[in-house]
């Protein structure tokens, strides 16, 4: 399972320290540390009838400035990814890596010939015609945002089906690649709402494409995919009009503080990031040794050695509240 795991196992980490999970400072998770304010009492939610999603589709479509007929909702990003891979059933999958590991898992499960391009070293590597191309933007685990104009032209010439994952875009001030839908029909944009809206336990993700593509996706979808709890959480989260501005500003402030802290240490090489986390390359120390030291302070970070093209010298640290960053600083000072 370690091959495809996505972050820290908080329960096992707390158990190894014989402490309550609430005592752990989790810097391994890239979930937003700020939560929207909800005006919904879930204790009074009517769950005796089947949910209807018309209002949810309308609200989500408005958020992303597309038509409701251009979106399909899924029980989380992984569900959307697996559904699309299964439905497309293409021969080859090209993943610009390192990337979210569910893409590699899906390509293997559904029998794709897998080509992984090391975007750190050779982003312009040749690809096969009619491939399924996967590009995470901003990327993970490094958080870099790419201007994909030239890549997009190459993918179009190769008649590829393109999936752009924008799960971390809202943490940045960059524009969506949705604009390319106007010039290329074989394009899908994935939006995971769990990251920015701090709700990993609420499984809602959106695939955006042309009306025709979405219609074909829906033909083989079950009638009910989201619970009333999932639906009402997202509807009410999107009603918090102050959340986006507050969250963006606070994440940028704390990110700058975390950047300043991490730059103090000679054993840390910091990668440029546009998202709410930093990829770090360690010098003269490996990820396991660093994590063992941070255990003394009940701090958990993300060992990135199961990402393709990375090894035990790479870790990821997420942007969190300032007290967590200060605790990390204290721990690093004493390494």
Automatic annotation (TrEMBL):
An MF annotation (GO) of this entry: pyridoxal phosphate binding
Domain Aminotransferase class I/classII large: 53-335
Keyword terms: Aminotransferase, Pyridoxal phosphate, Transferase
Domain of life: Bacteria
Name of a matching Pfam family: Aminotran_1_2
Coiled coil: none
PANTHER family reported in the protein's UniProt record: HISTIDINOL-PHOSPHATE AMINOTRANSFERASE, HISTIDINOL-PHOSPHATE AMINOTRANSFERASE 2
Family as reported in the entry's similarity comment: Belongs to the class-II pyridoxal-phosphate-dependent aminotransferase family. Histidinol-phosphate aminotransferase subfamily.
Protein name (record): Aminotransferase class I/II
Organism encoding this protein: Halarcobacter anaerophilus
